[in-house]
Design brief:
single chain, 145 residues, mainly alpha, three-stranded antiparallel β-sheet
Amino acid sequence: MSLHPRAGVDYPRSAGEFRSWFGTDADCLDYLDWLRWPHGFVCPRCANAGGWAVADGGYTCASCGARTAVTAGTLFDRRRTPLTVWFEACWMFASQKDGMSALSLQRSLEIGSYPTAWAMLHRLRAVLVRPGRDRLTGTVEVDET
């Protein structure tokens, strides 16, 4: 994969391809690792470009000893639901033209409780809000197909 994700190349094109790419939490962590640190781990505390991976999918900085996870500071931070479910929720959320309800997400992904599905959708919607809520400017194209 390249350093910058390319649509149609670095993202799955179908639900079947999606499931083959992200079948386990380890696959999801590897993908997040590639997106977050394309040139290798960089400590968020001291900006040192060295460290080692630990068993739980995190990293320890070689310079300051700080531990961080690939998911820290992201939508997936402090989650209890498996990453595979989160990734599939993101896929479904992004591919639905008319939006998605928590009930349909719960049923589609067989999530145990409605509040969990609602919280996931709430987090997904929250990360889509632009900082400062600036209005879009210039020519804005929308695909309604």
